[in-house]
Write a structure and sequence with these properties.
Length: 405
């Protein structure tokens, strides 16, 4: 028995099948096109209004200029301004405010968008979800922020876009003032504490100076050392002079007794500088050597505390003053480049895209169905009940569409 050899289908065979079923294909595509056109015509027109804003550049004056008055501390002060948030607005902050629930809810309430979106149960989450689809805000290629609103009324879409510009600016000013107020309160507490600590350090230095009668410790200790060195040098000279007098005139001579008295006096002065506790009672400049370490270390500690508190004050004071300025600022934080105007051309629906898209999508199902229908139609003898039902279904389609092969 010879088996029939099946030839693989060529591209021309597929074209022939489509040509054979062209009436079926054209009728269905026409019906889908008619339904798509009807659907697109029933969709409401939507208009898109766009407002463009820009973040103003950072001014060159302000905090840095204030701190520079304190002797070149602008770099430290500018760090403080960044730490405490005393800087300009950023794109991320504006976009965050625009998309916040607080801002969107205010817009929804003002323009009665619950009624516009026909949310029967007045569920705010549903309204927010619907409005977020009609609202967009993003930076463009020029670094500016575009705020767009879709609405069936072109005038309303422009009003909402312009209102959101004013809203985001007012909310940003409000948040900046609130942050500045919190910073000012913190810095005010720190400033007051610093003033109290500085006063305490100054009082401690004052008590030390009053106790020892010292005004400038390093200078006065240097004077004591120089005085001791001078006395030691004079003593050395007198001892040499006494030696020669002793050799010449003897110890019993008047000359030797005079020099010896001077030597004894100089030695007493040296011992007084080294050990006397009463030296500072008779002199406001000279101090005994044995007290110098205690005087020096106590002075250095008191002086260091004063300098530390003064350095802290140089940082805290300009930050505190800037925080007070920031708390009072209410200038606009954004610049409006383009106000939204009522659009004259519709944004959606794009009817051509809808019709062509549905036709293209339907073709993905229609063409494979045509090839399957041709395959079923060619089988003259169904092998099972399922194939029999498929054949009857195709024959019914052929009858309905009045196809002739």
């Amino acid at each position: 028995m010879n088996e029939s050899i099946k030839k693989p289908a060529s591209f021309g065979d597929y074209i022939y099948i489509l040509y054979k079923w062209k009436k079926f294909i054209f009728i269905n595509l026409f019906v889908v096109a008619a339904l798509s056109v009807t659907y697109s015509l029933l969709l409401p027109l939507q208009y898109k209004a766009t407002a463009t804003v820009m973040i103003p550049p950072e001014p060159q004056t302000g905090f840095g200029g204030l701190s520079s008055l304190l002797g070149g501390k602008s770099s430290i002060a500018s760090v403080g301004s960044r730490v405490f948030g005393l800087t300009g607005v950023s794109e991320d902050v504006l976009l965050g405010i625009l998309n916040s629930r607080n801002a969107l809810t205010e817009v929804i309430d003002k323009f009665r968008l619950v009624e516009y979106y026909e949310i029967s149960d007045s569920n705010m989450d549903k309204v927010l979800k619907a409005f977020r689809k009609d609202f967009s805000a993003f930076p463009n290629e020029f670094g500016m922020i575009e705020m767009s609103v879709l609405n069936e009324d072109p005038k309303i879409s422009a009003e909402i876009a312009n209102y959101m510009v004013r809203l985001v600016d007012s909310l940003n000013i409000k948040y900046n003032i609130e942050a500045a107020r919190n910073n000012r309160k913190f810095l005010e507490r720190r400033y007051n504490q610093n003033v109290a600590d500085l006063r305490s350090a100054e009082d401690s230095l004052f008590r030390f100076q009053k106790k020892y009668g010292i005004v400038a410790v390093p200078e006065q200790l240097e004077v004591t050392i120089l005085a001791a060195a001078e006395i030691e040098s004079e003593l050395f000279k007198k001892q040499i002079e006494g030696y020669f007098i002793e050799e010449t005139y003897g110890k019993g001579s008047i000359q030797y007794k005079g020099v010896n008295a001077e030597i004894n006096l100089l030695q007493d002065k040296i011992q007084e500088l080294k050990n006397s506790n009463d030296l500072n009672l008779s002199s406001n400049i000279l101090y005994p050597f044995k007290n110098m370490p205690d005087i020096a270390i106590n002075y250095l500690r008191s002086f260091r505390d004063v300098k530390i508190q003064e350095s802290i004050l140089e940082i805290v004071l300009p930050m505190y003053e800037q925080a007070k300025v920031e708390e009072q600022k209410s200038i606009p934080t954004i610049l409006v480049i383009d106000k939204a105007v009522p659009p004259q051309l519709k944004y959606s629906p794009k009817r051509a895209v809808i019709v062509l898209g549905l036709l293209f999508l339907f073709s993905f199902f229609l063409v494979p169905f045509t090839f399957w229908a041709e395959k079923v139609f060619r089988k003259e003898n169904p092998e099972n009940a399922l194939q029999d039902k498929e054949l009857k279904f195709i024959l019914k389609i052929i009858k309905i569409y009045r196809l002739k092969f």
